[in-house]
Amino acid sequence: NAGVTQTPKFRVLKTGQSMTLLCAQDMNHEYMYWYRQDPGMGLRLIHYSVGEGTTAKGEVPDGYNVSRLKKQNFLLGLESAAPSQTSVYFCASRDRGRDEQYFGPGTRLTVT
Amino acid sequence: GENVEQHPSTLSVQEGDSAVIKCTYSDSASNYFPWYKQELGKRPQLIIDIRSNVGEKKDQRIAVTLNKTAKHFSLHITETQPEDSAVYFCAASREDTGRRALTFGSGTRLQVQP
After folding, report:
1. CA B54 to CA B38: how far, in whole Å?
2. Do A56 and B99 touch (CB under 8 A)?
3. Which of A10, A66, A68, A76 could form a disulfide with A47 if both were Cys (CB 3.0 to 4.6 A apart)?
4. Smallest CA–CA separation between A14 and chain B, in Å?
5. Best CA proximity match to B58, nearest among B71, B47, B68
6. How large is the average pLDDT for residues A70-78?
7. CB contact under 8 A, A50 and B98
């Protein structure tokens, strides 16, 4: 039982490049979330999903897209990376009927 | 939307002393308030949470209190130890069509001096 995993752990991109961050959970959770964490700030919600095939915008969605084709996976895409997207990205999942969110280990992304 | 403010931003205490971190929230519909501990380079770990139908919750050296009227909640750590050193985040959420996304405070860096 691995919980929530994220791939990759680290990545450096040049401005304008694209990439996809993968979040996977093996707890059969319905809800999944993508947050970003910047220095001196708490985590901020980018996008979330309340179930397979559904996604919705969070607090800071601009420049990101997401997909949830399978219940266990939640993908975060950057189509054209910008330096402002340099951050640590955390994925989380939550079971239906429960409040607790379980976080993945994070992906540290640097855009130069 | 929800706004969560957290104070202080840094806190230094001597080992064995108590530490208190305070948060205020803006959305009166928020009803779930977790606290996370984050060590350097690690993921946030849930340490305690409270729901709006409860005023206080305790787990060994950690306690959380909630004042719904004033819209603030606090984390209390007693008998602090060096391993308590970390960044602590409060958060708030409301049940909103199942979304339950968290709005975080900006964090408190706690340093416990041996």
Report:
1. 25
2. yes
3. A66
4. 23
5. B47
6. 97
7. yes
